[in-house]
Every structure is written in structure tokens, then in C-alpha cells.
């Protein structure tokens, strides 16, 4: 037994990992590209494989490992066997020593003991999560950008693009969203439709969500359209919790994800 353990947080935009010893002392840490647990999609399976391979190469000096614990966005228990085998092959660890959950359950357990808080995450996607004392899970939202993901980085980016192009269609130019247009087009590599189309439709939700800081930058420069979008985004991830969850009268809440970074813009801070 090596006495070394790895924890991996795989999100849609980026992944992070850390190797610790049996006393919990940090040995090494690093980052890798984002991925998802949607291995039913061949493209997503390839992304996850590449991310795990990159992590395996970076932490190679610390192999073998006694155990791996992963939180993966989009993970479903039906994929446990396949993903554990994939982790085993890339990190040279027995699949039975691989523990997997979705990334939000991992985040919740890092922040709260079961039954003691609510976690709201607004990252690439968005979700509200409560794990009860009996370990039952209550989820609100988290159904992806095609259905909702309100207030997430992806939502912010798409809302900004929608409002920008409405102005362009109506007036022939960005009008009062000129600063927003400048920041978005710069982030996407061009203002013509070919550049925008290639960026939005040629990537994944993580790439779209990566435009959220451009919206925050525009807001910090005084763009009122951007500021309104970020203000609305601050309300969106606060979903109506089911009565069974509200009745617990829990006052401990934690917000994580894009909002914690975007809130650093002076204009986006609450009074």
C-alpha cells in the first residue's frame, strides 16, 4: 500500500486534482481540462478519457495510489462501472478502489454534514442541493443548458448573446450594449457571424460558459446591459426548495461557482 490518495473534481469547464498522504497532507495538486460523466455520448467519453489521461501523466510520479475519489459533473450511477474502469486504466488503480459521485454531492459533503445546509452552485451549469441526515438527496435544477441552468456561466453567456443580437437585429448595431459587444467579440475571436458561430456551435457548454467573465468585465466597465444580466443571474440560482427541505429550517447556505468569481467586479457587489 502506497499510503497515497487522489481526489478529482471534474467540471464542465475545468478539472482539479490533489494527491494526499494517509494523514491528509498535500503531496501534489494540479488542473486539467473539463469533462462530463455523459459517457453515453462518444464525444464526452473521449473528453473524459483525455482529462483522466492528462491527470494520470501529471501525477505519474505519485503512482500507485491506494484509492481515488471523483466528483464528476453529469455523473449518473448507471455509468459507475464504466467510469471506474476508465479511471483504473488511466491511473493504474483497481476499479474497486475508485469512488465516484457527481461533483455537487462531492462539494456538498466538503461543505456540510448531511442535513445541515443547502448548497447552490452556479458554475458552468447550476443546481441546488440538499443531502438529508438519512443521506437522501434533494436536487433543484441542474438539468442542463437546453432546459434551464438558470444563473450559470452558460446562462450568463447565452443571455448576453441573446440581448446583444436582439439589439443588432433591431438597430443595426449593439446600441447600449457596445461595451458588452466589444468584450464578447474579443473573447470569441471576432465580430462576424462565422467567428461567433464557430465559437458557440463548435465547442461545448464549458466553452460557452467561459464567456461569463467577459460579461463581468463589461459590467465593471459600466455596461448597464451586462450589469442587469449579472443581477438577474444572482437571483436565478436561488430555486424554490421543496417543502420537505424548507421544513428543516436550515439557515446554513453556501454558494459556489462562477458567482464567487464574478462578484469580484465592484459593480456586481451587493450594497
UniProtKB/TrEMBL annotation:
This is BadF/BadG/BcrA/BcrD ATPase family protein. Residues 6-234 form the ATPase BadF/BadG/BcrA/BcrD type domain. It comes from the Bacteria. It comes from Devosia algicola. The lineage of its organism: Bacteria, Pseudomonadati, Pseudomonadota, Alphaproteobacteria, Hyphomicrobiales.
